[in-house]
């Protein structure tokens, strides 16, 4: 039985003692709760860090984890194709000024842009064609109509479209405080009916939104001067400039300094972009797209030629007539699967085996190539080895021999090296290149939209 305090002083001491015991018990319980919460937090953070590492680490791993991805997500993620349509404000938003197929493969980090000329004929008979028979007029009906016709032209099955008011690009340029771009030629043009005045000097410079609009709308000058043939005349040159500027804008937008401007960028997208792409689809690709090397994006244009009143054949209006055979070859080259590419190269290797043996014997007696002649040969290098050093080595070897390497980019990883003769170049140059590489199957392709004479796809067999 507890002893009762005899007086007031003892009672106070007793109460103090009880209070200390109670406080000690409360402190112990609180400490246990804090320790438990700390352990839970450590487990949660550890789990998140583990998942981030499992998802590839870095920013990709972080974003993948935040959107609920796991290790299987990337394996099951198919390449995405989107039809990009730029609508000019100067035509009331009724015509698509720019039509580009954008493709991104997250598995091998490859991407491409394929331009469709806005004057591409999509009617039944160009001899009786009108302006409404041009592909840029289909947007007046609906973006789905344009998408449908692009699929017919290319044989692709593109599901998504994105309609971008040109004002979006102009405002984006101003938000990121300008885009550094190498303007290919002097651009001087005035059209008072459109209140359009273009005045740009050639060379590397920072373009603000107003100057970016001038760049994107330029086709030819006041005196008819246009882009040089190697760049592409009129609309061809304009499309190349548009693609190059889009790439530079994307590259310079995706810089750390612009992270605080993300709200402004999103606001521009909401105001000026119409699309059938859902957020759920976009979020699947964003974690991987941030690692895309913008410089590796391949840029092409639909093969074909322009015809009008002064050409043969003659048509009442100027139309771009797509070349079906060349288009099929280009589409296969750009979008063929890894498996298809491997099968084609194996078939080519088996078919040309006897010829290859003869070439090996002949190579020992090859005539030395004159560097002046070699300098006239334009070569495109596509690196399919997965190794940047291989690309550097091949480029150095070819330039040392005098060849003009105009383009280098990354393509789908492939096992076999292929040398494609695109413009019926003398076989002595093909033989010389093959001898220098010491590997490679030779094929001929009439696709010349890339403005090169020879395309070399460097395969893993090049790496000794």
Query: Mean pLDDT, nearest integer?
Result: 77
Strand order of the largest sheet: 9-4-1-2-3-10
CATH domain class name of the largest domain: Alpha Beta
Q: What is the total tally of β strands?
A: 17
Please give the radius of gyration in angstroms. 31 Å
Distance between the termini: 94 Å
* Whole-number total of structural domains: 3
Q: Can you say what the CATH homologous superfamily of the largest domain is?
A: LCP protein
Kindly name the structural category.
Answer: alpha/beta
Largest sheet: 6 strands, mixed
- Overall CATH architecture of the largest domain: 3-Layer(aba) Sandwich
The shape, in one word, is globular
Describe the structure.
This protein is of the alpha/beta class and 464 residues long. The protein has three domains: 16-66; 77-335, Aminopeptidase (3-Layer(aba) Sandwich); 338-462, Alpha-Beta Plaits, CATH 3.30.70.2390. Helices cover 43% and strands 20% of the residues. The protein is built from 15 helices and 17 strands. The strands form five sheets. The protein has a six-stranded mixed beta sheet with strand order 9-4-1-2-3-10, with helices on both faces. A hairpin with a 4-residue loop joins strand 6 and strand 7. Helix 1 crosses helix 2 (58-66), helix 2 (58-66) runs antiparallel to helix 9 and helix 5 (166-175) packs antiparallel against helix 8. The chain is globular, with a radius of gyration of 31 Å. The relative contact order is 0.10. The model is unreliable at 46-50, 59-67, 338-345 and 354-366 (pLDDT under 50).
């Amino acid at each position: 039985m507890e002893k009762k305090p005899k007086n007031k002083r003892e009672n106070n001491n007793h109460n103090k003692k009880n209070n200390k015991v109670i406080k000690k018990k409360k402190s112990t319980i609180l400490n246990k709760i804090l320790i438990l919460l700390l352990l839970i937090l450590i487990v949660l953070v550890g789990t998140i860090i583990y998942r981030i590492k499992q998802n590839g680490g870095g920013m990709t791993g972080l974003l993948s984890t935040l959107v609920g991805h796991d290790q299987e997500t990337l394996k099951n993620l198919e390449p995405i194709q989107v039809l990009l349509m730029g609508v000019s404000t100067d035509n009331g938003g009724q015509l698509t000024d720019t039509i580009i197929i954008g493709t991104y493969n997250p598995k091998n980090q490859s991407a491409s842009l394929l331009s469709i000329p806005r004057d591409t004929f999509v009617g039944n008979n160009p001899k009786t064609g009108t302006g409404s028979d041009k592909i840029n007029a289909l947007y007046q009906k609906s973006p789905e109509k344009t998408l449908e016709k692009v699929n017919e032209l290319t044989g692709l099955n593109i599901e998504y479209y994105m309609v971008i008011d040109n004002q979006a690009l102009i405002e984006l340029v101003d938000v990121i405080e300008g885009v550094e771009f190498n303007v290919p030629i002097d651009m001087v043009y005035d059209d008072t009916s459109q209140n359009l005045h273009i005045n740009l000097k050639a060379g590397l410079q920072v373009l603000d939104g107003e100057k970016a609009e001038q760049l994107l709308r330029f086709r030819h000058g006041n005196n008819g001067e246009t882009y040089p043939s190697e760049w592409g005349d009129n609309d061809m040159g304009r499309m190349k400039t548009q693609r190059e500027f889009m790439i530079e804008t994307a590259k310079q937008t995706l810089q750390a300094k612009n992270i605080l401007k993300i709200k402004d960028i999103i606001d521009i997208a909401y105001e000026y972009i119409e699309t059938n792409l859902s957020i759920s689809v976009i979020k699947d690709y964003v974690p991987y797209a941030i690692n895309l090397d913008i410089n590796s994006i391949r840029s092409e244009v639909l093969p074909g030629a322009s015809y009008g009143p002064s050409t043969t054949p003659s048509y009442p209006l100027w139309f771009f007539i797509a070349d079906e055979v060349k288009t099929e070859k280009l589409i296969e080259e750009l979008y063929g699967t890894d498996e298809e590419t491997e099968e084609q190269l194996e078939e080519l290797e088996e078919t040309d085996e006897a010829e290859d043996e003869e070439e090996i014997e002949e190579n020992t007696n090859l005539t030395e190539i004159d560097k002046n002649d070699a300098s006239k040969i334009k070569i495109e290098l596509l690196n399919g080895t997965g190794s940047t050093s291989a690309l550097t080595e091949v480029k150095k070897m070819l330039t040392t021999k005098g060849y003009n390497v105009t383009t280098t980019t990354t393509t789908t990883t492939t096992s076999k090296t292929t040398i494609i003769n695109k413009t019926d170049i003398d076989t002595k140059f093909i033989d010389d290149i093959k001898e220098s590489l010491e590997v490679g199957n030779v094929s001929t392709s009439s696709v010349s939209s890339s403005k090169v004479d020879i395309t070399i796809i460097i395969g893993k067999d090049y790496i000794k």
